[in-house]
Amino acid sequence: MNGTTERIVARRAGLRAAGRPLAVGVLLATTLLTSACGRIEPWVKPYERERLADPIMAWDRAAISSSYLGHVRENREGAKGGTGAGGGGCGCN
Amino acid sequence: MLKRFLAPALAAVALGALTLGAHAPAAASTIAPRPAPDFTLPQRGAPAPVQLSKLRGQVVMINFWASWCGPCRQEFPILDEMYKKYRPMGFNLLAVNVEPDPKDADRFLAKTPATFPILLDAKNELSKLYNVNAMPTTVLVDRKGNLRWVHRGYKPGDENEYLNQVRALLREK
Amino acid sequence: MSRAAPRKFPAPAKAVAPALAAGLALLGGAAHGAVLPEERADAMYKTYDGGGLLVKGPAVLVRKNFADKVSVSAGYSVDQVSGASIDMVVLGASELREERKQKDLSVDYLRGKVTYTVGVSNSLENDYDANSAYVSISQDMFGDLTTVSLSASRGWDKITRVQGRERTRDPNFERRLDRDTWSVGLSQVLTKHLVANLDYEAITEQGYLQNPYRAIRFLSPDGQSFSTAPEVYPETRTSNAAAVRLKYYLPWRAAVTGGYRYFFDTWDIRAHTGEFGYTQPFFNDALTADLQLRYYAQSAANFYSDLFPRENFQNFVGRDKELAAMNTQSVGLELTWDFLKSQRWFLKKASASVRYDYIMYSYDDFRDASLRGVTPGTEPLYEYDASVGQVWFSVWF
């Protein structure tokens, strides 16, 4: 058995390069959305947000617990990220 | 190394520019006086409904609130103080509850009682009529029945503006 | 199998810094409507028991607001780790008895509809020092129906190595790992009963991504035993995660959540995560129950193998089961008792919560190499179950 070392070249800039245009695209879409927002009427009025303001509709009711569970998962799994959440809620002020 | 930060930095700058340029609705706006739309709504705990045009001659503050709205709950005791103090001078405060279920308002008022009238707008017709686009919304109507000021949202400290405007309107004949 | 001097294994809280970033994202205050998050304090005791390891320890988290513009959050957590994982057993490492301390601090500044956040975090063990800092902006727009957030974070890790029974630090070994993370999130109110969340996150890591204690194994020429050799990892890794979540209000007053995340990176790992959650209040909100089901599946990294056919088979070699083809299934149940619902002294509300998660790990190409007298490569595939317990008290003021 000869000891030829097989080579695996870790792919580098390929996906990182894909990430940047993707993010720029998202940013552009958001900018366009927000500039259009003056013309479209919000379809859920502030006084109709009763259900959304309900505590059971919060994405994360106990950060101290979910952050520990997130830590447990990330330590033992290969994947990470994409867990941020926010928005919804009362929409007051 | 700086290159790696380029995209996120650009994104942050872009969003920053967005936010600075973004027009958040002004917290309080002065309105060129025009007649406040008339309405009739049932009052909680009273047999007769309340009609705005019958309150001509008084300075009327209309406050749109809900029990699930934190800032609304926060300003309630302050509104109550204002009501008690200026009632004798011709000030009236109509707190319009926008919730479809009156029991939610009952539960809140049991813990935080108020002496001012609570009107019930369960079908949100008044909210639509007054174009309520923030919670809470406070509207000031002068003795002649004209809309004068609109406050969108409530942050501690806003009550000083309320007081100044109410006093100014009370001084008007 | 070679037997080196008893080697200490890292605490399972390795690769801690990405977890830090996740923790930070949660701590720094998820994007809110234009109202500051509630002031509260939480104290928790947590335990993890699985795969030969036992981790337990307390944590506290406090949030205080100032002038209705600024919200500060500070957290502290201790993990006491003991036991031996399967890798440690295979390599003959001595049992762990170690401690990890984590500190987090974040500040939110609310101006109009925009929240600006900065945060820092540190996680310290005797052989791993992880630091990170982040900034984030989030804005409500469009009648508060939409929230957009952007975050950028930077991490600096210092990895050392301890050896011997006294776990003294090896003065000749010190490595660095740098991490850049940035993410964009969009939250959208779809109807009076439905909210959706979209998240995209990209992480670029550069430096020492492997483990100073872990080894790969390769088949000996006679095919009846294996030898170990140090891992060799690439020095860069770029990861991407895209996730979508929905939360729906059910007419009888309950909430149901569904979520999916797709992950891919430059090591060829592809992972799918599916989550389902159900929240039900009882007894006029005195008791709230949450049920959570989660399924996770990933494909192996391209340089991973449980057993390499010979020494020096590839330029990059690794045997971390975290990079193997594997899946996890878990079920979690949380009960919260709101025992104080109206103002008493300076407290607005107080509750006690207990949560239990049962996680089943199952590997498709990682074998239990601790078994003796078995032809390498024919050992049973490894699997284990873990129990996570959490008890915490929360007060709002």
Short description:
Chain B is an alpha/beta fold. Chain B has helices at residues 2-21, 70-86, 102-111, 125-129, 158-171; strands at 28-35, 40-41, 50-51, 59-65, 91-97, 118-120, 137-141, 146-152.
Structure description:
Chain A is mostly helical. Chain A has helices spanning 13-36, 50-53, 63-76. Chain B has a single domain, classed as Glutaredoxin (3-Layer(aba) Sandwich), CATH 3.40.30.10. Chain B contains 5 helices and 8 strands; from the N terminus they run αββββαβαβαββα. In chain B, a hairpin with an 8-residue loop joins strand 2 (40-41) and strand 3 (50-51). The relative contact order of chain B is 0.21. The mean pLDDT of chain B is 87. With 397 residues, chain C is mainly beta. Chain C has one domain (16-396): Beta Barrel (Porin), CATH 2.40.160. Chain C is built from 2 helices and 18 strands. Chain C has helices spanning 16-27, 86-91; strands at 40-50, 53-66, 70-83, 96-111, 114-124, 128-141, 146-163, 168-191, 194-207, 215-219, 226-230, 236-250, 254-265, 270-282, 287-298, 326-340, 349-367, 381-396. Chain C has a 16-stranded antiparallel barrel with strand order 1-2-3-4-5-6-7-8-9-12-13-14-15-16-17-18. In chain C, a hairpin with a 4-residue loop joins strand 14 (270-282) and strand 15. The N and C termini of chain C lie far apart (59 Å). The chains are: A mainly alpha (93), B alpha/beta (173), C mainly beta (397). Chains in contact: A-B, A-C, B-C. Chains A and C meet through helix 1, helix 2 and helix 3 of A and helix 1, strand 1, strand 2, strand 6 and strand 7 of C.
Main features:
heterotrimer; B: 173 residues; alpha/beta; Glutaredoxin; six-stranded mixed beta sheet; two-stranded antiparallel ribbon; globular; C: 397 residues; mainly beta; Porin; 16-stranded antiparallel beta barrel; two-stranded antiparallel sheet; 2 helices; disordered N terminus
